[in-house]
Design goal:
Layout lengths: L7 E4 L7 E4 L1 H5 L1 H16 L5 E5 L2 H13 L2 E7 L7 E8 L2 E8 L8 E9 L3 H12 L3 E11 L5 H4 L3 E7 L3
Parallel strand pairs: 3-4, 3-7, 7-8, 8-9
Antiparallel strand pairs: 1-2, 4-6, 5-6
Helix pairs in contact: 2-3
Length: 172
């Protein structure tokens, strides 16, 4: 399926010069969304994950659906201050600022094969931060997948893991 037909583009959001990729049309279409999760499961299968890790908030949508489809557990990677208990934290750079992500220190078993899932990879900062969190929790980050890759930014080179995506789009 050509998923690019289901991705909206909003110029100058959240700041001038950024071309926001809107996944809402994909999520609204039941056939496209179902197909997308099935295709992500095909990409994910090669990594043989034990568990899926996805970031707030769009990574929750695809990661949880993928975990369900693959009969795996799902771990939420949250923005700073959103999780109770003992947490691991990593800060990273965005295209337009900085952010901090957290996971609970007991998010998965030690050496669990963790697959990172998000809707989009731009510079790779968030996926790299997720990888660092997995390592801090003594897990084994085995790969990363996304729906969209912004091809000019080559963010997959930043994360240092095997990476797969469904579509390549221009970041412009």
């Amino acid at each position: 399926m050509d998923y690019s037909k289901y991705i909206g583009v909003i110029p100058d959001f959240p700041i001038k010069g950024i071309s926001f990729k809107d996944i809402s049309p994909l999520l609204r279409d039941p056939v496209a969304f179902h197909s997308c999760i099935d295709d992500l499961a095909k990409l994910a299968a090669e990594f043989k994950p034990d568990i899926i890790l996805g970031p707030e908030s769009r990574g929750f949508v695809f990661g949880a659906a993928l975990a369900y489809r693959m009969n795996l557990g799902f771990v939420m990677c949250r923005k700073a201050g959103k999780l109770p208990g003992n947490n691991l934290k990593v800060s990273y750079n965005l295209e337009y600022g900085t952010a901090t992500m957290e996971i609970r220190e007991d998010s998965f078993k030690k050496q669990a094969r963790v697959l990172l899932v998000d809707d989009l990879i731009a510079t790779g900062g968030s996926l790299k931060a997720m990888k660092e969190l997995v390592l801090l929790a003594e897990g084994n980050p085995v790969g990363a997948i996304a729906i969209i890759r912004l091809k000019e930014l080559e963010g997959e080179k930043e994360i240092g893991l095997p990476f797969r995506c469904l579509i390549n789009l221009s970041g412009k």
